[in-house]
């Protein structure tokens, strides 16, 4: 069977997609892990034959509806496990109303859910499609478990000292400008599907600025009075890292980094500080202590993970709590993997002790195989097409820079940094070692596309 795994934000999705690909390849399937643009190039040129097309969301925007109709017409079977998740929100109704629709689900062969809450909300709003909804959990969550702790090496750029990880979730104030986001959401139909979304966005953006200031102030005090540890500040993928570097540039012992997966940083931190971020659930599953810092009274920005970990509301209390956790660090040589997880985690995330979410998804993919998705693609021609496409893009960038009188080529999209052969081979090999899988071949088709299959 042919399986095409689309990646939008590699820091968030790449490792879990490689896990899926490794498991599927071990069972004889041909798997491409790639950005969407490369997959569509192969489909449009007819070198990628029908298979499973696994996408990061089913947002009912016109361009996605058109794309999915085209893929279905060509014989592809569409599946999805929403990467935005919504697990940090208080309830899933708003999430499933805005990121799904009857039309999009009708074009989809299967939806893989994170847990019982999003499954119930989906079935409530789209009851005629209930049979397509499968509570599998998420492959991303698989990688949060202590079972995969050996997969996460110390991330590049990590300080030598123990570090507090600050996981930011303030894209409203530190990402795209509000008007740019408004135009994008208007185009995607968010405000038409939920008229209350506009008030929500204005209000959350205002509070996000207040939250940004409260974090800067708290980190300044923390840096001045902390013990012998460093602070790593990790912006959300949709935030502008240069904004944070400017805000925090005069505060010593703070590293502003975004390279690599958040999971690697969570796994190596002695504590995670956050507010309203999925990292609270990730750290809890990973058995890394969590501090929820809320420096002002929120009205619109309240989210559910606040009930995980320690709640702190002032810089002085934050300092006391972080220093206390750091002081106890030496007394705990390893994380207590036997500690029971809070009920809220089990309500939002399906954790099966006997089978990975990735394994469940591969099992369900195989039930969709009716031999129409097994015709061997022309991967040699696909690789050639991607080389030609890259060359044309390089020429186009060079021309634009000459016209703009700039001396250097424009930066690549930060969402998907260029892939490197040795790095991808290392990730696949780690999964093989952990899972006991042999005879897997991994090939870089381009700097944005990987082929993983059985030898």
What does this structure look like?
- It is a single chain.
- With 455 residues, this protein is of the alpha/beta class.
- It folds into two domains: 2-144 and 351-454, Rossmann fold (3-Layer(aba) Sandwich); 155-341, Glycogen Phosphorylase B (Rossmann fold), CATH 3.40.50.2000.
- Helices cover 45% and strands 14% of the residues.
- It is built from 19 helices and 14 strands.
- The strands form two sheets. Strands 6-5-4-3-1-2-14-13 form an eight-stranded mixed β-sheet, sandwiched between helices. Strands 9-8-7-10-11-12 form a six-stranded parallel β-sheet, with helices on both faces.
- Helix 14 links the parallel strand 10 (271-274) and strand 11 (290-293).
- Helix 1 packs across helix 17 (357-368).
- The protein is globular.
- Mean pLDDT is 89; it is low at 406-412.
Kindly summarize this structure in a few lines.
The chain is α/β, with parallel strands linked by helices. The protein has helices at residues 10-26, 36-44, 62-73, 93-99, 102-106, 116-125, 139-142, 171-174, 178-188, 190-193, 196-225, 241-248, 262-268, 279-286, 315-327, 343-348, 357-368, 379-403, 421-435, and strands spanning 2-7, 30-35, 52-55, 77-80, 110-113, 133-135, 163-167, 230-234, 254-256, 271-274, 290-293, 310-312, 440-446, 449-454. The protein is 45% helix and 14% strand.
């Amino acid at each position: 069977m042919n399986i095409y795994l689309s990646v939008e934000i590699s820091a968030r999705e790449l490792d879990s997609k490689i896990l899926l690909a490794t498991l599927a390849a071990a069972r004889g399937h041909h798997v491409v892990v790639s950005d969407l643009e490369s997959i569509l190039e192969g489909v449009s040129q007819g070198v990628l034959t029908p298979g499973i097309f696994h996408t990061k969301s089913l947002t009912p925007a016109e361009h996605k509806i058109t794309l999915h109709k085209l893929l279905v017409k060509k014989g592809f079977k569409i599946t999805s496990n929403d990467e935005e998740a919504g697990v940090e929100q208080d309830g899933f109704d708003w999430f499933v109303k805005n990121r799904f629709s009857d039309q999009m689900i009708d074009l989809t062969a299967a939806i893989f859910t994170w847990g019982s809450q999003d499954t119930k909300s989906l079935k409530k709003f789209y009851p005629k499609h209930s049979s397509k909804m499968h509570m599998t959990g998420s492959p991303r969550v698989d990688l949060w478990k202590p079972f995969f702790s050996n997969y996460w090496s110390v991330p590049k750029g990590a300080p030598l000292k123990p570090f507090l990880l600050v996981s930011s979730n303030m894209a409203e104030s530190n990402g795209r400008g509000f008007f740019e986001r408004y135009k994008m959401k208007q185009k995607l139909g968010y405000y038409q599907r939920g008229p209350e979304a506009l008030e929500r966005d204005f209000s959350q953006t205002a509070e996000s600025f207040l939250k940004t200031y409260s974090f800067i102030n708290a980190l300044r005090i923390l840096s001045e009075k902390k013990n012998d540890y460093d602070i790593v500040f990790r912006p959300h993928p949709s935030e502008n890292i240069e904004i944070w570097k400017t805000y925090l540039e005069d505060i010593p012992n703070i590293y502003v980094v975004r390279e690599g997966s958040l999971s690697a940083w969570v796994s190596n931190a002695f504590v995670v500080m956050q507010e309203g971020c999925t990292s609270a659930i990730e750290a809890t599953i990973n058995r890394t202590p969590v501090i929820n810092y809320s420096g002002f009274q929120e009205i619109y920005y309240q989210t559910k993970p606040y009930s995980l970990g320690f709640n702190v509301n002032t810089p002085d209390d934050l300092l006391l709590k972080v220093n206390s956790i750091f002081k106890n660090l030496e007394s705990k040589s390893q994380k207590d993997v036997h500690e029971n997880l809070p009920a809220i985690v089990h309500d939002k995330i399906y954790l099966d002790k006997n089978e990975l979410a990735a394994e469940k998804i591969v099992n369900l993919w195989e039930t969709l195989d009716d031999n129409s998705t097994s015709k061997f693609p022309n991967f040699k021609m696909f690789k050639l097409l991607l080389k030609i496409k890259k060359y044309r893009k390089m020429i186009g960038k060079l021309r634009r820079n000459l016209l703009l009188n700039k001396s250097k080529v424009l930066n690549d999209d930060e969402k998907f940094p260029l892939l490197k052969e040795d790095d991808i081979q290392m990730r696949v090999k780690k999964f093989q070692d952990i899972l006991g899988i042999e005879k897997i071949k991994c090939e870089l088709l381009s700097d944005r596309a990987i082929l993983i299959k059985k030898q």
